[in-house]
Write a structure and sequence with these properties.
156 residues, five-stranded parallel beta sheet, 6 helices, globular
Length: 156
């Protein structure tokens, strides 16, 4: 499952370029696992058609899991989940107004039938780990990466 020259398995979308630094731990962790990913910046509110196109074609591009990061109203993950059959992991971004609680509450209050998984505020690294765990339900190589990762944590 080397990331080199392989189609992305994880799609990462964020509402703003300003979210990029907080999402770098997600990308770094996926790289350490050797899991290929793609990154998209598009706001659910400012570029809804672009979000719709990206999410609704994710399966066609080989994406198996999506990580969506957003702050404040944080509708991005839910909008993406409405347009894809793939699991969506949301990452609430820390905000200046309410410290990210606004983002977190927006993400965990999804309507019935449109679920998303949600990690901690700025929990980008955990989003990557959860994405690989999801991939591991159908891929022995991904599952082994998680087994090795957890063994490594136990030996620290």
């Amino acid at each position: 499952m080397s990331a080199e020259n392989k189609a992305p398995l994880v799609g990462i979308i964020m509402g703003s370029e300003s979210d990029m630094p907080a999402m770098e731990p997600c990308m770094k962790q996926l790289e350490e696992f050797g899991v290929p990913y793609e990154v998209k910046v598009a706001s659910a509110h400012r570029k809804p058609a672009e979000v719709h196109e990206w999410a609704s074609t994710a399966v066609d591009r080989g994406i198996r899991v999506i990580v969506a990061a957003a702050g404040k109203a944080a509708h991005l993950g839910g909008v993406v989940a409405a347009y894809t059959p793939n699991p969506v992991i949301t990452v609430p971004m820390k905000t200046s107004d309410l410290g990210g609680l606004d983002s977190l509450l927006s993400m965990v209050q999804m309507p019935s039938g449109v679920p998303v998984a949600c990690v901690a505020i700025n929990g980008a690294k955990n989003a990557a780990i959860l994405a690989v765990q999801m991939l591991g339900t159908g891929c022995d190589e991904a599952r082994q990466k998680i087994v090795d990762f957890k063994e490594g944590m136990a030996n620290v």
